[in-house]
Amino acid sequence: MKDKSAKTNFQIHELLTRRWSPRAFDAQKIEKEKLQRIFEAARWSPSASNEQPWHFIIGEKGDETFARIFETLVEFNQLWVKTAPLAGIIVGRENLLSNGKINFWYKYDVGQAAAHMSFQATHEGLFVHQMGGFDREKARELFHIPEGFEAISAFTIGYIGDYNVLHPNLQRLELEERTRKSTDEFVFSDNFGKKSELI
Amino acid sequence: MKDKSAKTNFQIHELLTRRWSPRAFDAQKIEKEKLQRIFEAARWSPSASNEQPWHFIIGEKGDETFARIFETLVEFNQLWVKTAPLAGIIVGRENLLSNGKINFWYKYDVGQAAAHMSFQATHEGLFVHQMGGFDREKARELFHIPEGFEAISAFTIGYIGDYNVLHPNLQRLELEERTRKSTDEFVFSDNFGKKSELI
After folding, report:
1. Tens of pLDDT, residues A172-194
2. Contact A143 B192 (CB under 8 A)
3. Which of A70, A138, A154, B177 allows an S-S link to A134, with CB 3.0 to 4.6 Å?
4. pLDDT interval class at A3 (50, 70, 90)
5. Please, which residues bridge with residue B129 across strands?
6. What pLDDT sits at residue A1?
7. CB–CB of A187 and B58 under 8 A?
8. Are the beta carbons of A128 and A21 closer than 8 angstroms?
9. CB-nearest partner of B110 from A48, A108, A118
10. CA dihedral sign, ordered B113, A191, A199, B98
11. How far does A164 lie from chain B, in Å, by closest CA?
């Protein structure tokens, strides 16, 4: 297995360095206790007015939910999601429970819950791969997601697998260097775009 | 200091249990090395097509950036943000760099970066308090945030302080029990709304 740990400029928590989004998963099922802790982690995420707008639909390989999630995926994702033992769709509630108005932060807060899920999964020795490449309206239809809720992302969780099982084009992605803008390019002071001297 | 650790149903990583959003901060400045690691953590967050739509504007108490961030806050937040040694505004890029179209996931991915920032801050012994209660258009004006970018949330980071310094109404909030829906209410299988048997 290639080491895909982040090549950081400053040393960060080992779970954040270790996290990445593989496509080759091992067939091994995820223990129920681990899934309980993973979604407990999402549960304690912060949210605007504590609205907790996150919902997860999850299925194990071989069950009806997994098959339906698979059906919503773009072909490229189907190529590799078939190796994963668990797939999910993350759904956000668009409106505030308090007054029914649109919640400006619902996607933002759902993203935070997804990060909490990933953090705990990494702690459990697992990997998460989030995907935008799925049909949100098909997900609404197949899972009867009501109006006012929206399917935002799909994901897989599993133990990492041997990348040699993947299609050659996907193997290449699995080995590719991970890249990010430097912090200078997104941490500012004084004005938007001006590099901060605080870091 | 009251223990506000999450009362979890399943044991999760200690950094997630310990994280909460205080209003009473200590005056102590945050070490530059810690800030470097905190934003390095945000840097390695995942994003759709690796677009990395997150930006942070940060100011230290006493500087011009902090004063301007403070000016954007609703009065309720001004009541306590004055105790914090560092304040920030998180800005998202709305459009895809690849083709200029709207990025459906930009707030979602900015939320993930905010969560990564919070994990690392917690690891450094610090606390983050995110806020929606600020004037996004005033932030745009004061920091010259261009069209196509949007101020999403404000935040403070600092060491925790003595809640007795706060206004009595805020002291009450600082002591309040933390609550969340149970995982049964947001982890589904088969159909949206149907409790999953996998957890």
Report:
1. 999 999 999 999 999 999 999 99
2. yes
3. A154
4. confident
5. B156
6. 61
7. yes
8. yes
9. A108
10. positive
11. 23
Among A7, A68, A112, most B C-beta atoms within 10 A, so best to mutate, is A112
- Nearest in space to A121 (alpha carbons), one of A55, A2, A22: A22
Residue A35: strand, helix, or coil: helix
- The candidate with the shortest Cα–Cα distance to A74, out of A8, A139, A13, A29, is A139
Interface contact B54-A186, CB threshold 8 A: yes
Phi, psi at B161, each rounded to 5°: -120, 180
- Domain B18-165, second-level architecture: 3-Layer(aba) Sandwich (3.40)
Residue of B8, B44, B101, B136 to mutate, testing the A interface (most A Cβ within 10 Å of its Cβ): B44
Distance CA A1, CA B164 (A): 53
Residue B64 has pLDDT above 70, yes or no: yes
CATH (residue range A14-165) = 3.40.109.10
Which residues in chain A are contacts of B65 at CB distance < 8 A? 189-190
Chain A residues within an 8 Å CB radius of B55: 186-188, 192
Please say if the pLDDT value at position B1 is more than 70: no
Q: Distance (Å, rounded) from C-alpha A106 to C-alpha A95?
A: 8
Where are the alpha helices (H) located in chain A, listed in sequence order? 14-18, 32-43, 64-72, 75-81, 106-123, 136-143, 168-175
